[in-house]
């Protein structure tokens, strides 16, 4: 740069500094270096994390984790207990008998697997006897430790999807989300709150398969859900 131009530039910079009137520039602290850009958490990145997860012992015995299924823009999330035999093989929640019934319950209020989001409180199959992964009916509810280890993934799913309502399917999901020991009979029929999101508790579809008398209360709960989703 020729000398004349340099001098002009220096004069302009001095003029600007005077305009800013910041006094002694030499004492000004250096701005902090910008933080390294963090990769944003997405449902895809979370699912990848879950695929490699060993935060609890279920990670070592599962075949495939069942992360979650449905729309990332779902207005409602259904949350079950944990994957069973079929889910462990397919890597998708609620694909066995209970899942087929859940699909019918959804259809009854005009919803589908694709329009809602379905997940569980643990992503890996809790087995009664983990040495027998090929035996059907080898399922158990997750322990408090397993739920606590996995909970962060569910919380992140809820935070990313931001549904208008949550439905806890069965007492295990209710226990995890509401920190309660109460059963479904005491918890259903009213709205609860999960970190600002309205939450309903209803019977698990597997309980419905065992006991037909749960049909009516589940239907009432689904009507309450539908009415809530239809509110503006
Ligand atoms: Fe990780 Fe959850 Fe699977 Fe445990 S159940 S290994 S915490 S993903
Ligand atoms: N039961 C559950 O709670 N979750 C499933 O994914 C399947 C059955």
- Report the sheet-strand fraction: 5-15%
Structural class: alpha/beta
Distance between the termini: 64 Å
Major sheet characteristics: 6 strands, mixed
User: How are strands sequenced across the largest beta sheet?
Assistant: 1-3-2-4-6-5
For the residues shown, what is the average pLDDT? 92
Which small compounds were modeled alongside the protein?
iron/sulfur cluster, uracil
**What overall form do the CA principal axes indicate?**
elongated
Query: Could you give the order of the helices and strands?
Result: HHHEEHHEHEHHEEHH
Cα-based radius of gyration, to the nearest Å: 26 Å
The number of distinct helices, counting runs of at least 4 residues, comes to 10
Overall helicity? 40-55%
The stretches of 5 or more residues where confidence is low (pLDDT under 50) are none
What is the tally of beta strands? 6
Task: Describe the fold and architecture.
Helices cover 44% and strands 11% of the residues. The model has no long low-confidence stretch (mean pLDDT 92). The chain contains 10 helices and 6 strands. The chain is α/β, with parallel strands linked by helices and 232 residues long. It has a 6-stranded mixed sheet with strand order 1-3-2-4-6-5. It is elongated. Uracil binds at residues 66, 80-84, 87, 93-94, 96, 98-99, 120, 206.
């Amino acid at each position: 740069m020729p000398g004349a131009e340099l001098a002009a530039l220096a004069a302009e910079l001095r003029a600007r500094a005077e305009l800013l009137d910041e006094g002694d520039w030499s004492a000004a602290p250096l701005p902090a270096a910008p933080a390294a850009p963090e990769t944003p958490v997405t449902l895809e990145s979370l699912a990848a994390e879950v695929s490699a997860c060993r935060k609890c012992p279920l990670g070592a015995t599962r075949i495939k984790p069942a992360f979650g299924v449905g729309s990332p823009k779902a207005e409602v999330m259904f949350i079950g207990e944990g994957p069973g035999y079929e889910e462990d093989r397919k890597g998708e929640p609620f694909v066995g008998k209970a899942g087929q019934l859940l699909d019918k319950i959804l259809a009854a209020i005009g919803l589908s697997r694709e329009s809602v989001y379905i997940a569980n409180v643990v992503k890996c199959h809790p087995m009664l006897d983990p040495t027998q992964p090929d035996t059907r009916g080898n399922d158990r509810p997750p322990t408090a430790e397993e739920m606590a280890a996995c909970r962060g993934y569910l919380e992140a799913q809820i935070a990313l999807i931001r549904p208008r309502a949550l439905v806890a399917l069965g007492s295990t999901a209710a226990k995890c989300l509401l920190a309660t020991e109460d059963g479904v009979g005491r918890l259903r029929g009213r709205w609860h709150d999960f970190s600002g999101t309205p939450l309903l508790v209803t019977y698990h579809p597997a309980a419905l398969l065992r006991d037909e008398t749960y049909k009516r209360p589940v239907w009432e709960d689904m009507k309450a859900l539908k009415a809530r989703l239809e509110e503006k």
